[in-house]
Task: inverse folding
């Protein structure tokens, strides 16, 4: 079942939550709605689910207009951030609930309910906990029960609103890998909301990045990471160093940096900023090199798979740099050392600070 959103807008009082948003989720695709708080992600998800109506625009399921359809008619499974499980029902009864409240003509027999719930609990790896109450489960287990309950009614589309947001970091990592494996197995058209860029990039087939009610970029995780549409995308998808300056006569002059910028106008200078991720920067003990610029090591964090350093160039800014442990062993930097900073990749965008 494909989902298509065409020119959807939604306001709550004077607040414009969605501003002419369009996107498509293909049949069997797993798509992440990513963005900062207040960007419009949950509003869009609720409009797709039929829990809110748009002020303008259209929602289509498999090419058919579903904009005014009741939520129950859309065959959507919805998983909330805080589980929304029935506290006095066992795990089995929570999952069975949606089947038992179907209209009499559609309600499965008790034998079919038991079979279906048993299959789902096995699918989410909780078949041994069917007689437990939600209070007896961990947060990760409760979220899997919520997912099984959403799947019980055999939805055509699965919608998840910050499904792992209330869990600790380690459980979140385990569950997002599990969700990816589960999706590969059942291939149900799925759309999930998150503000965690690492989660979106790891789990989704495609990422739709929203900010202030508009789609900023829509593409594969690799597209967004390697070819960001603007500085907001670059900055949102992880730590980045920013160099402010100007472009002129084929060069970008960015603080202590000067890099080729062939698209620069030839009839004057324009403000610009350059962006380099921490791992796109190399360090050298050769202070006389022609590339890069000198900086003083301020802090070294050597725990983990990579070594993170903070350096202070002579202009008073702070740079974040990540190097391999092998490179760290070669350089052996300590706070107070002077090193040459050599960015390997600088993305240049026209406009002053905060623009773009």
Result:
């Amino acid at each position: 079942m494909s989902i298509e959103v065409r020119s959807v807008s939604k306001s709550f009082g004077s607040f414009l939550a969605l501003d002419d948003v369009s996107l498509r989720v293909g049949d069997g695709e797993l798509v992440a709605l990513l963005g900062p708080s207040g960007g419009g992600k949950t509003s869009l998800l609720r409009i797709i689910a039929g829990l809110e109506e748009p002020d303008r625009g259209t929602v289509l399921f498999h090419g058919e207009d579903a904009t005014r359809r009741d939520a129950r008619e859309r065959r959507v499974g919805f998983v909330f951030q805080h589980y929304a499980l029935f506290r006095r029902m066992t795990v089995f009864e929570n999952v069975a609930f949606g089947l038992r409240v179907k209209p009499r003509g559609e309600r499965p027999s008790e034998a079919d309910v038991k079979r279906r719930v048993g299959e789902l609990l096995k699918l989410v790896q909780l078949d041994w906990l069917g007689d437990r109450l939600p209070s007896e489960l961990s947060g990760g287990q409760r979220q899997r029960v919520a997912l099984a309950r959403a799947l019980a009614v055999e939805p055509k589309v699965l919608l998840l609103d910050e499904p792992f947001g209330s869990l600790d970091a380690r459980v979140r990592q385990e569950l997002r890998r599990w969700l990816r494996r589960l999706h590969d197995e059942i291939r149900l058209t799925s759309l999930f909301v998150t503000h965690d860029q690492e989660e979106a990039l790891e789990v989704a087939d495609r990422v739709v990045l929203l900010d202030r009610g508009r789609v900023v970029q829509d593409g594969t995780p690799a597209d967004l990471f390697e070819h960001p549409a603007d500085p907001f995308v670059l900055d949102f998808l992880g730590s980045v160093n920013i160099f402010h300056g100007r472009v002129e006569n084929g060069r970008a002059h960015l603080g202590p940096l000067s890099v080729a910028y062939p698209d620069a106008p030839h009839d004057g200078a324009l403000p610009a900023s350059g962006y380099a991720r921490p791992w796109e920067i190399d360090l050298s003990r050769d202070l006389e090199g022609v590339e890069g610029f000198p900086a003083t090591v301020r802090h070294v964090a050597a725990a983990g798979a990579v070594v993170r350093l903070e350096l202070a160039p002579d202009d008073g800014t702070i740079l974040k740099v990540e190097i391999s442990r092998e490179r760290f062993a070669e350089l052996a930097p300590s706070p107070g050392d002077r090193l040459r900073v050599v960015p390997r990749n600088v993305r240049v965008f026209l406009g002053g600070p905060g623009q773009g």
In short: The mean pLDDT is 92.
